[in-house]
Predict the 3D structure of the following.
Amino acid sequence: MVDLLPVRPLYDHYLLCRRWFENSETTKWLSSPLRLGRYHRLVHEKLISDRRNHVLFISVDSAPIGLVGLQDIDRIDHKAEIWYMVGEEQYRRKDLASQAVRKLNEFSAHHLNLASLYAHVSVFNLASIRVLEKSDYRYVGRLRRSFRVNGEYQDLLLYDWIPA
């Protein structure tokens, strides 16, 4: 069972996030600004203080194991893009990201009044596709050649979620 806990501008939170964001294997599927391999303290503070973002730790037994977040929160159209990563390798492939995404879905609908969440995922990121599908996201389209990994272009699949 996972819990979602706030990420703060505290130094220990920054160090933990930096360790995850500077691991290229952990971040290779994230959007380009988040997979640059450098995670400065100013980036951390902007990520968690920007009103268009909402970032939470995924925690197990009160220990942070990853992050789940909303970016580009649109308070007029009530939508946002979701992203997630399990930073601690021993917790991957245990359905914890799916649990965290489902919790963030409910929080987004009930506390942030969002009517729609969306995600884009590389066609080769099968684990993330499973997370979205297990979290009731629906495939809605494809952006061709819009994501680059190791110099190779890949298509992105678009998924969305709306509250029941």
Q: What stands out?
A: The first helix runs from residue 11 to 21. The first strand starts at residue 3 and ends at 6. The chain has one domain: 3-161.
